Amino acid sequence: MTSGVRSPRLGRLALALAIIGAVGVIYDHAVFSSFFHDDFHWLAQTRRFEAANLFRLDRYDHFYRPVIELYFLAGLNAFGCNPFPFHITSLTIHLLCTLVLFLFARRLTASEAFATLTAVFFAVQPGYVQAVTWIGAITDLLPALWYLSALWLYLRYVQSRQTRDYAAALAAFTLCLLTHESAATLLPMMLALELTVSSGGSRTRMADLARHVRRYAPFVALLTGFLAIAWIVNTRSYLVREGHYALGWHAIPNALDYVVSLYVGKHIVPSYLAIAAVTIATLIKGSPLARFFIVWIFVTLAPASFFTWGNASRYLYLPAAGFAMLLAHAVLAAHRMARERWGSRIATPAALAVAAAMAIRFAAFASDGADGFREETRPYERLIATIERSGQQHAPGDRIVVAAADLYGVPELYRDGVAETVACRPGVRLVIE
Q1: Distance from the CA of 74 to the CA of which of 25, 45, 91, 191 falls in 20 to 30 A?
Q2: Boundaries of every domain in the chain
Q3: CB–CB of 290/326 below 8 Å?
Q4: pTM for the full model?
């Protein structure tokens, strides 16, 4: 092995270890968190799992996410009702997403520096912390893995025309659809990606796309079928029936608030005006890559922006990938400009210092967010510990007696779920002493 080959590999190994270490430090306390809120519903539903029910749309009145159901089934069989391995799995999936994003960014630009900055900025992002810390937020973490994989594999196909890449992209696309409704934005992003990387003017690119309609036909067919299922199921959901999710102008301020959360800014009017100005300027004057990253951010934000009850940080996971690439693009563009004016001896250390400062700032906020989530789960942790210390029997049909004070901070909606989780079997209920 020559030193020229060894050096890049050692560099990538060092980068991987640095990212794993940084993520480990950020989430070191959160991995010891208890189950939280909807986790108990997922576990309760899994204990009653029947494979045949996956094909019965009449039993779904909220979302259709069969891959998530299978995920919790596998987790419950492998881990029982211990939250720690679930947290470790979420952390592992986050690292896998970072790896796939690195591969996508490197393939997109043929730049190791761009891919490295993208991976670092994404791995330590504070905006989406809830997606990594909350076990139930696997509904945002796992589809992101398929989403990123589909784009990376499709990019490989566009550039190399290998049939295996096309088939793998189609498989990742299917998994994404069966994991979360946000997959509906994946096909538009594939189109945007191909327009961005195709050579020639816009007319040439559009003509090229028109000649390859058959390439998209399987994706269109799958998406159409999924949207039909989603329409049937989601219109029964209380989110739609009670107006918690609806089309409307409220999506615009919600999207702006999400962008502010990405860079951890202030939620004030000047911030919103600045975001609008930068977005418009980039779409008009920016490079094709910069425009693609802007489109990525707002297209992946769109599904979550129509909630009427406020924003949730876990929905920032996919937009954070586009934001990380946009930041990396900006840092490298600034480096090129500085190098032309002052030379590499000044420009390179300055760019590294700026990138490091941004990453450290993000990591600090992310660590605070992860610690904050751990504190949110404390009431469940205390209740579970109290029940376990009581030594009460936990057979199906049993009632676990607790004092009213033990239930402080635990919503009534999840209390029986806590009892079933402690017993790790269905049919156990809590009774207030």
Answers
A1: 25
A2: 11-242+344-376, 380-432
A3: yes
A4: 0.92
